[in-house]
Predict the structure.
Amino acid sequence: MGRPEKPMQGSSSPCLVDFARGLRAQRITAGLTYTEMAGSTSVSAATLKRAASGTSVPHIETVRQFYAACRPYLPREQQVPIWKTTLKSWQIARMEERGTLVARGVRPALIADTRDLSLALQTFWEKKGALPVRAIRKYSGDEILLPLTSLERILKREALPQTKAQLLAIVRGCFATAMEEKQWDAAWQKVFGPRRPSTGPDLGETRTVRPGTPLFANRF
């Protein structure tokens, strides 16, 4: 069975504490030790234990490995809900860490132009935990669409996605839900319609976005 954890001490981060408690509960439900978990992952027992310590927000890949180790031992009906809860808790802890819990931007359904789209995408990235660009590319399922330099410029609002396929790869890489993907697809069509290709690279044009509306502007 999973061994009892040491009490979390000295954390001033409520969201991080909630996240760490969720990881601990997951491991206890699975009935595993950290050494046993490490045996089925590519990270060490010490890294997994530190992820649930409540001292800092772990890398998203560590969180994925933590869940992957526990999943086979969790009740089948709880597996997906536990992952969704874990991911959301991690995203909130990351926003707390970055000071972006109050981030507000245009919702995809209200996007009217390129400026809205740029701000909404940056805010979406923040709300999904501001994943590093390499992680977004890895989780997108289509790395060729996301050159790191281009992705960095898009997330800084210095450029727009060049195609709908690139936009959807970004939101997928940020763990968008199926419904969220549909909303972003519709937003792209609303802004660009048939004027720009929906798939494939667009190497002949680079659109630059001049930062305007601040990230924390209340647009709701």
